[in-house]
Amino acid sequence: MARLPKLPLRARFSASATAHPSAHLNTTAHPSAAASIHDDPGALYTQASTAAASRIIRRYSTSFYLASELLAPTVKLHIRNIYALARIADEIVDGTAEALGLPACGVTKTLDDYERTALAALDTGFSTDPIAHAFAFTARWAEFDRSWTVDFFASMRSDAPSSNSLPLPAYVHGSAGVIGWMCNAVFAAHAEQAGRPLTPKQRARTDEGAYALGSAFQKVNFLRDYREDTVGLQRSYLPKLTEESKTELVDEIRGELAQAHATMALLPLAARVGVLGAHDLFAALNERLARTPVEQIKTARVQVPRDEKAKIIARAVPRAARLR
Questions:
Q1: What is the pLDDT of residues 256-266, one digit of tens each?
Q2: Residue 127 to residue 122: CA distance in whole angstroms
Q3: How far apart are CA 202 and CA 50, in angstroms?
Q4: Beta bridge partners of 3
């Protein structure tokens, strides 16, 4: 697979062999740190871009933002950079662009343009688009495979008006599976930076777990967002949803969640708590969907109450440390 190049030394903000690049983005720790970052326009621009990515995630996804708060700062920054780019692509195809005046016929071109922007940022390490810049900062540092970004945009393109839909496995691969791989690449890069690199066997297992977790999340979303997808966006991810097919999908999700859970002990603790928290949030939502009649799923969005989310997140902290 074609990996992206590691960031050159300057783009890593003059990080030492042991320091994590995001540490040089923290201007609140000490006045001298703030002074040094202002002396480096590249570091300052990247800091502003990653701050924008974090703001996007906080505004659009409370569950994900809560779970990501459990990640170590050096990991959290990169995970939010990934999901911010995914969110912008979602907004292009999910109606926001049209609501603000873009003709439906222009949605695919706009997405294509954004893909070119993202890929160019991967090549150069810079973009005038702050979210694409933040994503490229992460992708180059964690050595993403370029095809992951291409596959992601292929799935997003199938959501554009008048586009041909992909078979469900291909759609889930691009919209969720590769996102799992991206996240795991960040975790692996963090482990290597900390002097505790994953073995090839551990990396392969955690890649499998990350892919399964991304797939499970997406399938939960299909059920949770059924009404919005079918009525609001005229999409048919689950064209024949019945009690029987819902039960099959819920069981499939349980299996993927279990597969992911079995690999979490291999993750660095800096990532494990947040991943377990996200896993547990979606597992709770999946069980609520299992108990909800299909006719209700078709008319209302099933959610986990905010207070229950907080309890789930709190329980994940001690549980993650005990994983073996």
A1: 999 999 999 99
A2: 9
A3: 29
A4: 145
User: Alpha-carbon distance 18 to 2, whole Å?
Assistant: 26
Question: Residue 145 has what DSSP assignment?
Answer: B
Q: Which residues contact 43 (CB under 8 A, 6 or more apart)?
A: 13, 24, 25, 36, 37
The two tokens of residue 95 are: 């109606």
Q: Is residue 19 part of a domain?
A: no
Is 7 a domain residue? no
Alpha helices in 100-233 (DSSP H): 107-124, 130-142, 146-158, 168-172, 178-193, 200-224, 226-227
d(CA 153, CA 212): 19
State the Cα–Cα distance between residues 248 and 251, nearest whole angstrom: 5
Tell me whether residue 128 is exposed, middle or buried, using C-beta atoms within 10 angstroms of its C-beta: 0 to 12, 13 to 18, 19 or more: exposed
Lowest mean pLDDT among 52-66, 77-91, 147-161: 52-66
CB-based burial of residue 291 (10 Å sphere; 0-12 exposed, 13-18 middle, 19+ buried)? exposed
* Count of structural domains within the chain: 1
E strands, 8-62, are none
pTM: 0.88
Does some domain include residue 3?
no
In angstroms, rounded to a whole number, what is the distance separating the alpha carbons of residues 76 and 216? 21
Domain membership of residue 122 (yes or no) is yes
What is the CATH number for 100?
1.10.600.10
238: containing domain = 28-322
Cβ-contact 152, 139 below 8 angstroms:
no
Tally Cβ neighbours within 10 Å of residue 287.
14
- For 213-272, the pLDDT digits (tens) are 999 999 999 999 999 999 989 899 999 999 999 999 999 999 999 999 999 999 999 999
First to last CA, the chain: 31
Residue 145 forms beta bridges with which residues? 3
